[in-house]
Structures are given as structure tokens and as C-alpha cells.
Amino acid sequence: MKNLLFAMFVLFVLCMASAAQSDPARQQAKLPAPTYYLAVNARTCEGSEVRFNGASNLPKGAMIGITISDFDHYAWKEFSGEIFLPIDENGFFDGRIQPKQGMLFRGNLILVAEFTTFRPQQPADVLRVAGKKGQNLGDPLTNPQMGQVSGPYYLLEAIARASCG
Predict the structure, then answer these.
(1) pLDDT at 26 over 70
(2) What average pLDDT score do residues 73-83 get?
(3) DSSP one-letter code for 153
(4) What is the CA 119 to chain-centroid distance, rounded?
(5) What are phi and psi of 28, to 5 degrees?
(6) How is the chain split into domains, by residue range?
(7) pTM over cut 0.85
């Protein structure tokens, strides 16, 4: 009788483990991001300041460049200088950015967040993960945030609408 109860208990445990593995929600929760990503949000925007936050699965200390721009035909019109912020130990960054001297932010601007390996110089442990030229950031054909800068250099880029006024 003990053997039968033990066998039923083992069968029950195996069935529960199998059901947990076949649950798509549990499987999906265990999957890591298939590539590196960068996300940014312009939280508030006034004429003199944009506050933003973002997240990434890049290593702690990776420096993210932030600018406020607008489309200008086939180029960008810069409304701010570039600032750099590190990703913290939890994968987040946040900050604020001001317009260039003599300018004010207006409606419908673009906050651009970029990770490059060369501007600014990234910490050595970040370069070991991303690659000296960004070659380890993923496959440019499958990572929609990955771009090629010049020659063999790659970057991650994300944009958010910064609507002031």
C-alpha cells in the first residue's frame, strides 16, 4: 500500500511539473530578451526642460546619450546638446535635459536615446558584453533598434515623443 501511495504521489508531482512547463505564460516569463534593447519615455515636457526615464538590458554602467531633436527634411534639427547617463544596477536610467541656449522646447519634439560604444567611451566591462564596435548587440536584421553608424560600428536607438506646450 505504501508503494502504491508513493507511486501516486510521484505521478502527481510529475504531472504538475509537466503542466507548469507547458503553461505558455510561465514559459514566456522565463525567456530572456532575444537581443539587447533600449526603451525611453518623455515623462514631462516644459519649455525649459524635458524629464525622461528609460530601461535597457545593457550592462550596469552603460552610458546612454540623450538629445531633443526635430525632423528637418532629411536630417535632425537639434534642440539640445547631448547628455550622457549610466544605466543603474536594475537596468534603468532617468534624468532631465534643457534646450540649447536661446531656445525653448515646443510641441511635437523627439527625445532620442542612443547607445554607442565610442561616444562616450564605455566602461571596459560594457564593451566586453556589447563588443568594441557594438557587434554583439544582436543581428541588425532581427533587432529593430539596432543601426549601423559608419563602417563596422553598431548602435541601439530609441525615440519618444516630447510634446511641450
Answers:
(1) no
(2) 93
(3) -
(4) 17
(5) -65, -40
(6) 1-31, 38-162
(7) no
CA-based nearest residue to 110, from 36, 37, 40 = 40
Sheet holding 49-56, edge to edge: 38-46, 49-56, 92-97
Q: What are the grid coordinates assigned to 54, written together?
A: 528609460
Phi and psi (nearest 5°) for 61?
90, -10
Nearest C-alpha neighbor of 31 from the set 54, 55, 57, 60: 57
Q: Which residues contact 135 (CB under 8 A, 6 or more apart)?
A: 152, 154
- How far apart, in Å, are the Cα atoms of 21 and each of 18, 25, 26, 47, 127? 5, 10, 7, 52, 35
Cα angle value 147/157/93 (rounded, 5°) = 150
Q: Which CATH fold would you assign to the domain 38-162?
A: Immunoglobulin-like (2.60.40)
Sequence-separated (6 or more) residues with CB below 8 Å from residue 77: 69, 70, 71
